[in-house]
Design goal:
single chain, about 160 residues, alpha+beta, Endonuclease I-creI, 4-stranded antiparallel β-sheet, 6 helices, hydrolase
Length: about 160
């Protein structure tokens, strides 16, 4: 159920922002999110409770979000769940790219120029690939190929 729900309402995001306190001058923040209308808060609370990690926040326009941004929780809880119960939509490609970024951050590779550039290359292919000002700051950015996701069938729930 949660995998199917994520195929419809989930997102794999990545924020890269200037941060002079960081070794490379940038903060890398991967985040898994499910967003719903506030009327469905009970459902979102159940999903969050199933995982035991993350936070629920209330945004504008009656939108609520459950998000997980702790690299530790992404590595130990979220990514293993979606490896065991894989997404079947095109969102699987975003998951695979997101997973690579989390691995790079978890292994501290984002603290090198090559690792930071690799993350930016991945961001250029993640979701809509919007780099904003990073496109100017990192002119050598080359989007990585998006993994191919071919729908075959809905897996047997048993």
């Amino acid at each position: 159920f949660i995998t199917g729900f994520t195929d419809g309402e989930g997102s794999w995001g990545l924020s890269i922002s200037k941060d002079s306190t960081r070794k490379m001058g940038y903060s890398i923040s991967p985040k898994f999110t499910i967003g719903l209308h506030a009327n469905d808060i009970a459902l979102l609370e159940r999903i969050a409770a199933q995982f035991g990690v993350g936070n629920i926040s209330i945004g504008s326009n009656n939108l609520i979000r459950w998000h997980v941004s702790s690299v530790k929780d992404l590595v130990n809880v979220i990514i293993p769940f979606f490896e065991k119960y894989p997404l079947i939509s095109k969102k699987r490609a975003d998951f695979d790219l997101f997973k690579r970024v989390v691995e790079l951050v978890n292994n501290k590779e984002h603290m090198t120029q090559a690792g930071l550039q690799e993350i930016i290359n991945i961001k250029a292919s993640l979701n809509n690939g919007n780099l904003g000002e990073l496109k100017v700051i990192f002119p050598d950015t080359k989007p990585v190929p998006r993994p191919l996701v071919k729908f075959t069938e809905i897996p047997d729930p048993n």
